[in-house]
Q: What sequence folds into this?
């Protein structure tokens, strides 16, 4: 085994935020945990800054591991040390899944490992350890190897596969998307919604309508999966519904039986999704938020419609997504911008105030 650092350098959240007020991040060191036989040490190349991290840091959304802990669950890197059972992973470039299931419980055994109740999530429930660091120890069984990575795409950029791209893939699986289905993506320009949009199109959706409030993001979505867009800024859910129905009439498609991905997690986005839901349609709830909406379940019954939740993505599906990137079926570079991890404090603030066009990926520079 290679020489192992005695400590991990990290940006640790020592206090969570509350009601939009920032928490506190401190640059520090934490102990290097023992590397068990089935574990590896990964030198982190990049860690994505996710909306979930913002929720922890500004809204005080509870984490399983109470602060102090290191945030960050979107990671790529290279294996630099390994336990005895994991030596085959040495020197391999990898993506670390955001959700690491126990693989032993009933949920795992019936194929719902993504929602395993004993799962480990870096930056939440992997002890104090997370991706805003220079190293991390993780189970080798969950890793996704990056084979034949194009040299013009930095390893750090693949960090966002761990959540921003695989979570949409799992959501599409939950939607039972079939070639020829019609799709609405609410929040089509966001850090996760943009990948829902391009994935559904790549997987055979017939018509894709993107909804967002940022003109630049709506324009970009037309190049990456969306056939039509609706700007919902300042509009009621009924206004958006009327625009949606107008598009349906113009293209000769029914305004029912659509698969509606709600990716914003906002009350407004959820209200639009509920307004668009009609006969034999399905809402797939992808975005997290604290808003509460009212809806008549009898209406759901009369429509013979469905509302389903989705969470994370099992590690075994990661290679499918990576293969789509490597074959050019979905874009990666367009949606990533890297920054030194030393800029983490102002970047959290920037991401909180206005979600950027491209997802921030922090590159360790301790």
A:
């Amino acid at each position: 085994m290679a020489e192992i650092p005695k400590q991990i350098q990290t940006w640790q959240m020592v206090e969570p935020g509350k009601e939009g007020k920032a928490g506190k991040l401190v640059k520090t060191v934490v102990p290097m945990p023992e590397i068990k036989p089935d574990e590896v040490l990964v030198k982190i190349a990049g860690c994505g800054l996710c909306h979930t991290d913002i929720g922890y840091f500004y809204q005080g959304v509870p984490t399983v591991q109470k602060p102090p802990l290191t945030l960050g669950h979107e990671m790529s890197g290279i294996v630099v040390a390994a336990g005895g059972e994991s030596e085959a992973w040495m020197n391999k470039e990898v993506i670390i899944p955001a959700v690491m299931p126990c693989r032993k419980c009933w949920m795992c055994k019936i194929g719902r490992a993504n929602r395993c109740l004993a799962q480990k999530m870096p930056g939440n429930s992997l002890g104090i350890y997370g991706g805003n660091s220079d190293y991390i120890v993780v189970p080798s069984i969950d890793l996704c190897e990056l084979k034949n990575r194009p040299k013009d795409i930095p390893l750090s950029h693949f960090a966002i596969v761990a959540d921003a791209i695989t979570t949409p893939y799992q959501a599409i699986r939950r939607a039972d998307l079939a070639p020829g289905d019609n799709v609405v993506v609410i929040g089509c320009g966001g850090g996760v919604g943009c990948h829902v949009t391009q994935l559904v199109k790549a997987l055979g959706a017939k018509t894709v309508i993107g909804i967002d409030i940022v003109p630049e993001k709506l324009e970009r979505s037309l190049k990456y999966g969306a056939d039509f867009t609706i700007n919902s800024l300042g509009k009621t859910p009924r206004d958006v519904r009327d625009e949606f129905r107008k598009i349906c009439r113009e293209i000769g498609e029914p305004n029912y039986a659509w698969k509606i991905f709600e990716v914003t997690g906002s009350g407004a986005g959820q209200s639009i999704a509920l307004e668009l839901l009609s006969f034999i349609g399905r809402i797939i709830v992808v975005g997290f938020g604290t808003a509460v909406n009212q809806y008549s379940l009898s209406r759901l019954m009369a429509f013979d419609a469905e509302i389903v939740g989705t969470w994370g993505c099992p590690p075994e599906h990661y290679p499918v997504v990576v293969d789509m990137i490597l074959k050019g079926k979905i874009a990666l570079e367009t949606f990533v911008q890297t920054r030194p991890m030393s800029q983490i404090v102002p970047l959290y603030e920037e991401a909180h105030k206005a979600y950027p066009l491209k997802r921030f990926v922090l590159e360790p520079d301790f």
Notes: The two ends are 24 Å apart (CA to CA). The chain has a mean pLDDT of 96.
